TrEMBL record:
It comes from Cytobacillus horneckiae. PROSITE patterns: DEGV (PS51482). Keywords: Lipid-binding. This is DegV family protein. It comes from the Bacteria. SUPFAM superfamilies: DAK1/DegV-like. GO terms for molecular function: lipid binding.
Length: 279
């Protein structure tokens, strides 16, 4: 059985990597006024962060069911099945769009997977699925492996500016105002598919230290982990953090990724995150 792997743009897997591992991507969009841009296709992370300095914060939109149907129908010409891996259904209807489209398309079996997370941590699932698909593993085996990965996947992130979370409906106005007054940098995570505060911490430095400590709790046993540092237009900070983490945890393989336009709309520039999974 020949299996295709599909994900959405919020995994922020570069085009070079997608092409190398034969990963198909369906984009979400950011909307500035009347102008809509598909992230990773029509707008890059770099240009997005430049745009928001001069414009109002955009809104975001998910792919239509029709876009999924079109992609799945195209894939049905060459594949028997498709594993469709998407950002958490608690923050977007993208996963449900894949489910609906899968019921509408004939000639290919669609296996939708709710990552219950986003960004490169979602990408961990995608890359493993692509690796297994290339080896000829069955869709059922790939889905089982991803379910196993879910047990050890962790991700924590820090929003530098609470106003983005508040405007995007992720925090109440009172929480955002209070947080800003106290210089609180909440450490956030996904719980029950939604973004929620994990701990409220007073400074950026302490918030990032807390995230490192959380990794340490898992990695201290010496088992092999794969991790990704995720940044919102802070590449130099990410590189510096990577060097520090590599010294602390030689049993962890670190990469660097980014919060692109759609997730960056909700978190804001300067946000930093760290996600990991047991190898």
């Amino acid at each position: 059985m020949k299996t295709a792997v599909v994900t959405d743009s919020t995994a922020y897997i570069t085009k070079e990597v997608r092409d190398k591992f034969n990963i198909h991507m369906i984009p979400l969009s950011v909307i500035f006024g009347n102008e809509s841009y598909q992230e990773e296709v029509e707008i890059t992370a770099e240009s997005f962060y430049e745009e928001v300095k001069h414009k109002e914060l955009p809104t975001t939109s998910q792919p239509s069911v029709g876009e999924f149907v079109s992609l799945f129908e195209k894939l049905s010409q060459d594949y028997d099945a498709v594993i469709s891996i998407h950002l958490s259904s608690g923050i977007s209807g993208t996963f449900q769009g894949a489910v609906s489209a899968g019921d509408m398309v004939e000639g290919i079996e669609v296996y939708p997977f709710d990552s219950e997370i986003s960004c490169m941590v979602q990408g961990f699932y995608v890359l493993k699925a692509a690796e297994m698909a290339a080896e000829g593993k069955s869709p059922e085996a790939i889905m089982a492996k991803m379910a196993e990965m879910k047990k050890s996947i962790r991700a924590y992130f820090m929003a530098d500016d609470l106003s983005h979370l508040q405007r995007g409906g992720r925090l109440t106005s009172a929480q955002a105002i209070l947080g800003s007054l106290l210089q609180v940098k909440p450490v956030l995570h996904f719980e029950n598919k939604k973004i929620v505060p994990f701990e409220k911490i007073r400074t950026r430095k302490k918030a990032m230290k807390r995230i490192v400590d959380l990794l340490g709790e898992d990695a201290k046993g010496g088992e092999q982990y794969l991790a990704s540092i995720i940044h919102a237009n802070r590449e130099e900070d990410a590189k510096k953090w990577k060097a520090e983490l590599e010294e602390l945890y030689p049993n962890v393989e670190f990469g660097i990724s980014y919060f692109g336009p759609v997730i960056g709309t909700h978190l804001g520039e300067g946000s930093m995150g760290l996600g990991w999974v047991k190898k």
